[in-house]
Amino acid sequence: MDTVYNHIYNIDTNEGLNLLDKESVDMCVTSPPYYGLRNYGNGNNQLGLENHPVAYVKHLCDVFDKVKYVLKKTGTCWVNIGDTYSCKPVGNFTGGGKEFVRRNTTGIEQSGVMDKTKTGIREKSLIMIPFRFAIEMTNRGWILRNTIIWHKPNCMPCSVKDRFTVDFEYLFFFSKNKKYHFEQQFEPYKIDSLKRACRAKHAKGSAYSIQTERQHTGYKNMQERAQKGEIDSVQPDGRNMRTVWTISTKPFKGAHFAVFPEKLIETPIRAGCPEYICKKCGKARTKIIERLKAPLEVFTNTTKPPEAMRLSGKEIKGCGQKLQNWREEHPQKIVGLTDCGCNAGFEPGIVLDPFIGSGTTAVVCKKLGCKYIGFEINKEYCKIAKNRIEELDS
User: Fold this and answer.
1) How far apart are CA 62 and CA 89, in angstroms?
2) What is the pLDDT of residues 271-299, one digit of tens each?
3) 29/153 same-domain check
4) Where are the alpha helices (DSSP H) in 50-168?
5) 233 and 245 assigned to the same domain
6) H helix count then E strand count, the chain
7) Same domain, yes or no, for 322 and 196?
8) Contacting residues for 230 by C-beta, under 8 A, at least 6 apart
């Protein structure tokens, strides 16, 4: 197919995926319809309204079988999916295509479109959709690299009194093969980590270090590294990113309520979509970066052992401007790209969202300079998505 990229197709997901060429996209990031939560008005066979969780998971994984076919060998797939409870239809549900909608505990609108107690799972129990999905994906050959927890600090409150309020969802990170494109992402160091590194450097032989050695094997290892001169400097970008991401939900004035925040998928796209793809062979060329490591003193604001041992979290936080100044004086340098030998020029990678909805993936791709392709069967959602994209161009 002569695919037009940077375009949202008003088409069924399966039909759209059938039109793509084998190994033609670099990564996939998406949030499919959740199980039994909403009737999107897309016909009787729509994803999410199956009569049993097993049927839903099969339907969903059949879609990702096709995603795997169009994904490059170095591609990754990121799927945001939430859970739901076994319950009876809510409100004045009368059928006939109408539905009563309320908020469930994760902040997603839950509709009375089906009686989930008929699945055989006892009422009030979590159905464990994310776990069922992840297991079936690995059964079908996907490699599950991370289970990321999307923590929502502004989750919807609920009146339930016999369990805890759910304030997170899952983001699964799959790869097609053992070797894949991935650009490491960083996050700020924790204050305690910097204090331990500084103390390890300066507290050699002190009563503090001897006591800590007895209590904490990790500190002893860090102190040994410090004695070898391995903790005299620190990666200025921070530490390797962890798997609990605290990201607030964002209200959206359009008709599509299930909108994940842009920040949630910025990291997957930065990590999984190459900036430079060879126009001839299609291989990703990764950046060769030269960057100095920052001396510990940039973070701790002191070189004297006694003061370093007594550093407070507030004092280390106060070094933020000093670190920023150091970064400006020592910027990272892209000294080259890995070479494929084609000398054919570059183009950005391609991101696929087979359930693009209101177009958040397309918006983020445009901001980050990636190509995108999306499928959405609902005409109204396509209009909303295209309006959001046009606003960026205006």
Assistant:
1) 27
2) 999 999 988 888 888 878 777 777 766 65
3) yes
4) 53-70, 129-139
5) no
6) 13, 18
7) yes
8) none
pTM of the model: 0.82
Number of domains in the chain: 2
342 located within any domain:
no
- Give pLDDT tens digits for 330-368: 777 777 778 788 888 889 999 999 999 999 999 999 999
Q: Indicate if 252 and 361 belong to the same structural domain.
A: yes
The Cα–Cα gap between 190 and 306 comes to 21
Give the closest residue to 299 by CA, choosing from 287, 315, 284, 288.
315
Provide the 3-class DSSP secondary structure of residue 170: strand
Kindly tell me the sign of the dihedral angle through the C-alpha atoms of 100, 105, 109, 111. Answer: negative
Q: Are residues 68 and 126 in the same domain?
A: yes
Residue 11 carries which DSSP code?
S
Specify the length of the chain in residues. Answer: 394
How many alpha carbons lie under 13 Å from residue 187 in its C-beta half-sphere? 11
The CATH number covering residue 54 comes to 3.40.50.150
Q: What is the largest CA-CA distance in the chain?
A: 78
Two structure tokens written together for 328:
């400006």
d(CA 181, CA 194): 30
Cα 134 to Cα 76, 131, 371, distances in angstroms: 14, 5, 27
- Dist CA 371 CA 352 (whole Å): 9
Distances (CA, A) of 174 to 49, 147, 246, 274, 370: 25, 9, 21, 16, 20
Task: For residues 45 and 175, state if they share a domain.
Answer: yes
Residues spanned by the domain of 85: 7-185+241-273+348-393
Q: Which of 256, 273, 217 has the alpha carbon at shortest distance from 5?
A: 273
* 8 Å CB contact between 364 and 266: yes
